[in-house]
UniProtKB/TrEMBL annotation:
<dbReference type="InterPro" id="IPR025398">
    <property type="entry name" value="DUF4371"/>
</dbReference>
<protein>
    <submittedName>
        <fullName>Zinc finger MYM-type protein 1-like</fullName>
    </submittedName>
</protein>
<dbReference type="InterPro" id="IPR008906">
    <property type="entry name" value="HATC_C_dom"/>
</dbReference>
<dbReference type="InterPro" id="IPR012337">
    <property type="entry name" value="RNaseH-like_sf"/>
</dbReference>
<dbReference type="GO" id="GO:0046983">
    <property type="term" value="F:protein dimerization activity"/>
</dbReference>
<dbReference type="Pfam" id="PF14291">
    <property type="entry name" value="DUF4371"/>
</dbReference>
<dbReference type="Pfam" id="PF05699">
    <property type="entry name" value="Dimer_Tnp_hAT"/>
</dbReference>
<feature type="domain" description="HAT C-terminal dimerisation">
    <location>
        <begin position="637"/>
        <end position="697"/>
    </location>
</feature>
<feature type="domain" description="DUF4371">
    <location>
        <begin position="147"/>
        <end position="333"/>
    </location>
</feature>
Length: 727
């Protein structure tokens, strides 16, 4: 038995023996560096011998084997062979790294070496040794270098803490839709903008931020470029999270909506609809400037590029758009071109788009209609911007005008109805303003009153007001039926046919009544108002007949195009709970076949039929709302028992026609429209939009420990004059 002195002496001369007493992982970093720098021991092993049984020949170990196998090492004490990488780094025990065994069978050395060389544990250990050896020179530093790294990392830590405060400020301003910049951001200004003022306010109570602002020379974090970079990095981080959610979804629908700012720059907002954690999600993707090219080719290419970027082109099952003619045209519109790319992408009317809004947008290319709706909107703005005017409205008209968005044609039936029913009162109101003492009203009120009085008495305005008063109540009824009967496709189709019948009947029979009403009931001089001195009455009437047909035909085309794929949605009745008892008695094979025709590649239809039969007979769904059925199926693990039924409900809830409303949140499109009106034209619009519209996603990301690290990593991808990366 070895005493302590002998043991120490052997350990000093035989590193393998030393490692048998103390594992490599337990050694200090300095000792590890020394051992790996010294390299593997390759002693002569005179006592390592093997006898060939048949011949009695004794084999001895040839040290040249060390040269053949760069991983092989030996131990004088054990008189055996070992694997140097495996001794140091392998977690798996074998003869080559077991100090109780070692390798000593020289008769089978070649075979054993080949077998060990190709083992996964050996390769991993060798890679670890190689990695350790390549980095040891970088980490085996002098005390001065270690101190320099320590100081650098401490500075980086402080810099990153400061940057976190800047990121948090950007998140707050973006989420709350508060402007960033100030008109005068110089140090002498008393109002340098919300971003800079908020940073300085935080610094009053935060020593790290205060010291940074006081001492920083190359990076304060207050410049507009830094603000924009942080906005972009946060937006990118949100986009990555959205992509991850969409990757998990089975189906995706796309909604595209166009908005224009006061400079007439067209911004296209894009929303994806999909299922996330058993709930239907409508997620804003971004704003895209389409001012340069608003053709169907350009917009459809943009849509395809976005779908490919998010990896969901093959998942697309539906598409919906606003009333822009270039988007919804049956032959040349975006929907037709996108359907050529993805045949299963049905064109669906989205109930986030109110039907009257869509129809008013669709006739916007008709100049007279655009002027008419602009006038309605102007009337609302005229009264809403002055309490004195509002008080007069309450006194004379005794009815306030429904509020409408100033930069969108959000003209509901209520607005048209209110102006029509209180037409005479509105004329009396403007006449009262103009007949009143001029000193009682400001110049703007007087000037605009002259214009509105003339417009209200204009024959063209009266003509269109009566026309839309006739049409909009019927389209509003249709909208309400479609909302409340989403899965009852026969009822929806009947209502659409009723509306189309009404419009066709209006086209054939209503003009003469409309002309007579406009001429006689309002007592407007048509020739004088139109200032067409060279036209006789018949020619003037023909021009209005042409306008009438143009408007009504546009509405009919819109209804036909927008609901052209409604017949494809018969299968939605498979989820109509009120019909479950009927379906339990007689399975609706025709509806299942409809589903197979529209979406043939997404389902195992044999299994789906069996699962639906069970669903109809067991009454496992408790809620009366289809929007809650998916949650029930997911929470109770029915999605595992009946995966095809769960997939069917996921499909149905992804289709925008079933989007009526979300009890837990405002639909994404409504929030987008509000946001665009406030911030159109600002830099980084999409990233700011993501922070504002998808604030729930931003909130969930901020709860994660690595959120700030992800944003900082994005921020550091560009060249920075300040250190933010650890060594």
């Amino acid at each position: 038995m070895l005493n302590e002195n002998d043991d120490a002496n052997i350990a000093n001369t035989d590193i393998v023996y030393k490692l048998s007493k103390q594992t490599f992982s337990s050694l200090s970093f300095g000792e590890k560096i020394r051992i790996t720098t010294d390299g593997r021991p390759t002693p002569k092993l005179d006592n390592l011998k093997s006898t060939i049984k048949k011949s009695g020949v004794i084999r001895t170990f040839n040290p040249e084997n060390y040269g053949k196998y760069p991983w092989m090492c030996g131990s004088l004490h054990f008189q055996k062979l070992f694997c140097w990488p495996c001794i140091l780094f392998s977690d798996k025990t074998s003869a080559w790294n077991s100090f109780n065994k070692g390798y000593s069978d020289l008769n089978n050395l070649h075979t054993a070496v080949q077998r060990h060389s190709s083992s996964e544990s050996h390769l991993l250990a060798w890679l670890k040794l190689k990695s350790f050896s390549s980095t040891r020179m970088d980490t085996s530093l002098s005390k001065a270098q270690e101190l320099a790294i320590s100081k650098h990392n401490e500075k980086v830590k402080n810099n990153r803490e400061v940057l976190k405060r800047l990121i948090a400020t950007v998140c707050l301003l973006g989420k709350q839709e508060i402007g960033f910049r100030g008109h005068d951001e110089s140090s002498s200004s008393c109002n340098r903008g919300n971003y800079i003022e908020m940073i300085h306010t935080i610094a009053e109570f935060d020593e790290k931020l205060y010291n940074h602002l006081e001492n920083a020379t190359v990076f304060t974090g207050l410049s507009s470029n830094i603000q924009n970079d942080l906005i972009q990095c946060i937006g990118d981080t949100i986009s990555i999270e959205i992509k991850n959610r969409i990757i998990e979804a089975t189906f995706v629908a796309i909604s595209m909506d166009e908005s224009s700012d006061v400079s007439n720059f067209s911004q296209l907002s894009v929303v994806f609809r999909y299922i996330h954690k058993n709930h239907c999600a409508e997620t804003f993707i971004g704003f895209f400037d389409v001012s340069a090219d608003r053709t169907a080719n350009a917009i459809s290419k943009l849509a395809v590029d976005i779908l490919k970027e998010f990896g969901c082109l093959e998942k697309l099952i539906a598409q919906t758009y606003d009333g822009a003619a270039v988007m919804s045209g049956h032959l040349n519109g975006v929907q037709a071109k996108l359907k050529n790319e993805v045949p299963e992408a049905l064109f669906i009317h989205c109930y986030s788009h109110r039907l009257n809004l869509v129809l008013s947008q669709s006739v916007s290319y008709i100049k007279q209609c655009k002027i008419f709706f602009s006038t309605l909107n102007g009337l609302v703005a005229f009264f809403s911007t002055s309490t004195k005017r509002t008080n007069l409205l309450d006194t004379v008209v005794k009815k306030r005008l429904p509020k409408a968005a100033p930069t969108r044609w959000s003209y509901s039936a209520r607005l048209v109805e209110t102006v029509f029913e209180h037409y005479e009162d509105l004329i009396s109101l403007f006449e009262h303003i103009l007949d009143d003492d001029a000193n009682n009203w400001d110049q703007i009120t007087l000037r605009e009153s002259v214009g509105y009085l003339a417009t209200l008495k204009d024959f063209e305005f009266v003509f269109l007001l009566r026309l839309f008063f006739e049409v909009f109540p019927h389209t509003e009824i249709t909208f309400n039926v479609l909302q409340n009967k989403q899965t009852d496709i026969p009822a929806c189709k009947n209502q659409i046919e009723t509306l189309k019948c009404f419009l066709n009947n209006t086209r054939c029979n209503f003009f003469e009544h409309l002309w007579k009403y406009s001429c006689e009931n309002r007592k407007v001089d048509t020739v004088r108002r139109k200032r067409r001195r060279n036209h006789d009455d018949d020619e003037l009437k023909d021009s209005y007949r042409k306008l009438f047909f143009e408007v009504v035909d546009c509405l009919i085309v819109q209804i036909n195009d927008r609901f052209q794929d409604l017949k494809e949605l018969n299968f939605l009745q498979l989820a109509e709970q009120s019909k479950f008892e009927e379906f339990a008695r007689c399975f609706p094979d025709n509806l299942l076949n409809d589903l197979k025709l529209v979406y043939p590649k997404h389902f195992d239809f044999v299994r789906l039929k069996s699962e639906l039969n069970v669903l109809y007979k067991t009454k496992i769904l408790k809620s009366n709302k289809i929007s809650e059925h998916l949650e029930e199926l997911g929470q109770d693990e029915y999605n595992i028992i009946m995966p095809e039924v769960y997939k069917l409900y996921s499909l149905i809830m992804t289709i925008p026609s079933t989007s009526a409303s979300f009890e837990r949140s405002v639909p994404a499109l409504k929030r987008i429209k509000t946001y665009v009106r406030n911030t159109m034209g600002e830099d980084r619009l999409s990233s700011l939009g993501l922070m504002s519209i998808e604030k729930n996603i931003l909130f969930s990301l901020k709860q994660k420990e690595d959120f700030y690290n992800h944003v900082i990593a994005k921020f550091c991808e560009r060249n920075r004059r300040m250190e933010f990366n650890f060594k």
